[in-house]
Structure formats: structure tokens, C-alpha cells
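The following record pairs a protein chain with its ligand, adenosine-5'-triphosphate.
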Amino acid sequence: MSLTLNRIGVQAPDDSSRHLLKEISLELSDGSVTLIIGHTGSGKSTLLQILAGILEPHSGSIAIDQQPLWDKRKVNQAHLLRLGLTFQFPEQQLFARSIRQEFAYSLRPYKLVASECDRRIREACEEHDPRGIFAMERSPFALSGGEQRRLALATTFATAPDWLLMDEPTAGLEAAAVRELLRLIRERSRGGFVIATHDLDTFLPLADRVLVLDRGALVFDGTPEALCRAPELLAHAGVGLPSCVEAELALARYGIAIAPDLLTPELAAPAMLKALRERRSAEVPAPQAAAPDAPPAREASAAAPPPQAAWLRVDPRAKWLLYLLLVIGTMQQMAWSGLAASALLLGLVSLGLPRSVLRSSWKIAVPFLIFMALSIWLAGMNWTSPEGSFQLGYSLERGWSTAFTVTRLFLILMDGYWLAVTTPYGQLVAGLNWALKYLRKVKLPVESFSLAVSMMFRFIPMILREWTRFSAIVRARGKAAIRPGAVRSRDIPALVVPLLLAMFHKAEQLTVAMDMKKIDGKQLLLKKSTLEWQSRDSYIVAAGVVGFALLLVIR
Ligand SMILES: Nc1ncnc2c1ncn2[C@@H]1O[C@H](COP(=O)(O)OP(=O)(O)OP(=O)(O)O)[C@@H](O)[C@H]1O
């Protein structure tokens, strides 16, 4: 059982010139424990998602036992079943009403007989629930945060994948649970582990192999001992040293030399003792150099910021004005030809937006289109009962008129999406402040309005980001052999429940933070303006006015 990556490249979804992974080639062999380490944003999670078949590489190929994982943009399901992925904060993936259903969801793709399912659940509970709190009918949401984390890990272990791919598995786990996890990894007799982690102290002594990523490139591939003999490489890649190596380097500054590749306190302590005895000197000289250097701050830890799309450089006031002109112009339309013209203008202002942004608009558009279809259907329905007999009919006229109204609303919604994706949050608020400053003079309650609008726009990109994150999680759990980014209807509850919970949690955090800072909207208006109007912005507004005039003529 081997996993082979051949010159894998991944581009950022919002900017194809930014490479999240660059030409990664490696072969992972059965029975090995491999660590992926690197600075924040170096591409560890991305590499794990590539290995798990959740993300399709833009270049290169990936194979399991020499069989390609991807075929015509679809992942091979038989291979998928052999891979298990646990995400950072795995407790956030829980969605079901009971612990039993949580296990059932993870095991369903394996089509096991009931007795085998029960056996796997029992074993996973024995391993991950030493205190016996996972009563099968209990709600997962009635568990504490740490218990939820254990449960989420248990559901993945129950699927018994050949390859277990884990993203920061010790984050938020108590020491006992970490020890238990290490024991499980050590005792596993088959398959392999790939672990992305910052926790070198815990995992280095266990690892057979370490991969170091630096800005998407593989800069080291070797044993933990070899890595610790080259600590400058770790510092250069923005990774802290393991504690034992730090201690060994610090002792070296006092002239006490110990091999720098003793990865555990159990190995390092006798070596230190031996070195001290050998010196036979009561006096310890002053250190020969300053305290160990902290690894240099990684200014470039994240890759250079992506080049801005043209619309991002436009003054937000121009974009607010354009947005208002589009919305008012669309609201004025009384005929389908007018709506077509509004749609055309929306299409024109959307030119040049990255493809990923346009694709994301579907996530907003699809629920609304469903709502539109339902509204049109319901609005046109009529029930008549002449002389006692019941007749069902459909009024085309009413359906048509509703279709017109909801299409107009749809265009306005998409205008709002355009403004949100072309304008960073800070600029959006700055532009809004500028507009509202004048209304404030006439004593309108603009503070509340400003706060409400800016919150709304803050939430739209957040929802899209969280949607992407949770859809990757359900793809990993549901093992669906479908196109990247797609979600099966049966997986919707597993996606929507955690998504809503995450959004409620974020809203709660935001409210508490605003409460503590006593933000009530006034601050937004008092912010100093940093806007800079350029001639380009005037042309854009002028073009917007022409488009608006056209819309008025057409209506
Ligand atoms: N959906 C996305 N759109 C744009 N950029 C993304 C997306 N997902 C990840 N990135 C970028 O890809 C880079 C690698 O991200 P990744 O999550 O793989 O890093 P990581 O090494 O796992 O970081 P951490 O240690 O913080 O978890 C980061 O610069 C991140 O901003």
C-alpha cells in the first residue's frame, strides 16, 4: 500500500498565479508515520487534502498502489474508502442527533453488515472513551469540547482506513487523550499515518519520516534525527525547534556537547548526565553566546499577497454609487426587456472577476432560484370548487407576474454579491461612512443602519468560506466520488448543521466583542477616512450614470 505523489501543483482558488503547493513529489510507504511540518500557511492542510482526494491537484498526479486516485475529474471511490482524514477542530463536524447516528454516517459508505458496524463502534469507543461517556443515544452536542473531539476522532478510527491523514490531531486534547492517541498510532499494525502538526515534541519521536514545507515547496524530506541535526533548516522554514533539541543547543553554548538528535527527554537526560560527568568540573562557565536565537520571524510566512483584481483597486465610494445606481435602476423596471438590460449591466460589471468568485455566486444563487421556483408555483396555484367539486388550476398570469418580481429581487441580490466580493470589508465600511456622513446631518438614524449593513457584508464572505470548509469535511466523511466542490443532497444535513452552528458561534463572538468594545455604530462613522478618489473612479461612476439613464429609458 503506497501513496505516490508526482509533481503535484495546487493553485489558490482565487488567484491562479499563487501556488499553494509547488511540484511536490514523494512516495509514502505502508506502515510509516510521516509528519508534515511547516510555518502557518505553508500548505500542510492543502497537502493533506490532496492526499485524501478532497482537493484535485491542478498539475501532477497522485496514485494509491500505482492506481490513479483521480479519473476524469472524479475521485475513485474504492480508493477513497481506504483514506481517512481528520480535520483541525474535528468536533465541528458533528451534526447528528445521537452518537450512534454520528458513527452511522461515517460508516455508511462502507456498506457493512450490522454486526460489523457494532463491532467497529464498540472498539472505537473502547479506544477513545475510557470513561464510558459515549452512550449511543446521547446527543453529541451534550458532550464537552474535548469529549466531542474524541468522538470525532473515534468516528474516523471506526472506518479503519488504510491511510489515516490527520490535521493537528493534538490541538485542544488533554494530556491523557494525547497519550492515548500516541498509543493507538504505535499499536496500529497496518496502514500508514500522515500527520500535519506544529506539535513536534509529541510527534517527532514517533515519526519515521518528516516533510518540511516552506511556502508550498518541499524543503526537507528525511528522518527526524537528520532534521534535528540541521536545526537551521527548521528555523529557516519558520518552525520552532523541539524542546529537547533546544535544550541540547543551549547546553552546547555552555560547552556541554550532546548529540542534537535525541528526540525525547528519556533519551536526552542520560546523555546530558553522561556529558556533565565527563566534564568533572564544578564550575560552569558563562555561556559562549547569547541565548539561543529565536527562529527569525517569518515575514514571508504567507506567500506574497495576491495581485489585486481590477475591481479591488476601484474606490469603494465609486462602487457604492455604482451599486446604488444598479439597484435603483433594476427596481424601476416594469418589463422583461428592462430586467434583461439590468442583467446585462450586472454581467458587464462582473467582467474580470476570478472564476472561483463567479463559481461561488452559485452557492447564493441556487437556494434563491429554488425559492423563486417555489414562489412562482405557489403564486399561480388556484383551488376552485364550483358546485362542490374540487378543481386545481394554475393562473399563468399570476405565476408570470410573480416570476417577474422575484427575478428583479434576484438581480438585486446578485448586485449585493458583486459589491461584497469586489470590496474588502474595511473599504466597504469606509465607503458607507462617507455616504452616511451627509445623511447624519439631517438626523437620520444612520449609526444603526451603518452597523447593520457592514455586519451583513462581513457575513457573506464568511458564509462562503465556511461553506467551502464544511463541504470538504462532508466529502471526507461521506466518501462521495463526485466532482470537487459538489455536495450530494444526502450530505446536506451533515453540511448545514455544523455550518449553522459555526455561524451562530461566530455571530455570538462578534456580539460579545462589540459589546466589550461598546460598539454601537457611531465608531464606524467616526473612523478617519483613508479614501482616495482617482480619475478612473469618475469614469466608472460616469459609465454607471449612463447605464442608469439607459435603464430609465428602457422601463
Ligand atoms: N480557499 C482558499 N482560497 C485562497 N487561499 C487559500 C485557500 N485555502 C488555503 N489558502 C491559502 O493556502 C495557503 C496554505 O494554506 P494551508 O491551510 O494549507 O496552510 P497550513 O500550513 O495548513 O497552515 P496552518 O498551520 O495555519 O493550518 C495559505 O496561504 C492559505 O491562505
